[in-house]
Amino acid sequence: MTDQVRKLVALLESGSLAERRDAAEKLAQLESDARSAAVPLVATCHTDDEQLLECATAALEGLGPPEESDVEKLAAVVERPSLDVACWAATLLGRLEAGAAPAVPNLAEALGAHPEMAVRQRAAWALGKIGPAAAAARDALAQAAESPDRRLARLAREAIGRLN
Asked: What is the dihedral of CA 77, 81, 87, 88, to 10 degrees?
């Protein structure tokens, strides 16, 4: 993590609301150079402040895949009830593709049990991006492929097709 990113993360985590917004906006401008801030940005998505959420989302959109060292931390939050936090954790794990293999159990659990359909859909997508390394989630994906939610069922079927 560069000094600039470290300082912005410190503000993001403990600054005033205005400082947090500004830090998220500056991280968004850094795009992939801010990838070491992925976990704090995901945590920031658990906010009631729309402007802060918008800035954190913009930073996450331009981030690309996170660092592989963040897999465990992202896996730990993918099952949280917060829609934005869990969706972004699953998205970042999917961006890591096979590098996110250690998160397969967490993604499979989110796929089957998360209260938010959008998170379940994103977990299916992420498992498909992980590919053959997600084979342990085959049963969860097969169950999701039978979902009455058409998008979830389609994403699960696509993910199953990528397991081989």
From this structure: -40
pLDDT tens figures, 20-67? 999 999 999 999 999 999 999 999 999 999 999 999 999 999 999 999
Among 81, 56, 79, 82, residue whose Cα is nearest residue 126: 79
Structural domains of the chain, with CATH: 1-64 (1.25.10.10), 73-164 (1.25.10.10)
Complete DSSP assignment for 15-36: S-HHHHHHHHHHHHHHGGGGGG
- What single string gives the DSSP state of each residue in 92-137? HHHHTGGGGGGGHHHHHHHHHH-S-HHHHHHHHHHHHHHGGGGGGG
- Name the CA radius of gyration of the chain, rounded: 16
Q: 89, 74 in Cβ contact below 8 A?
A: yes
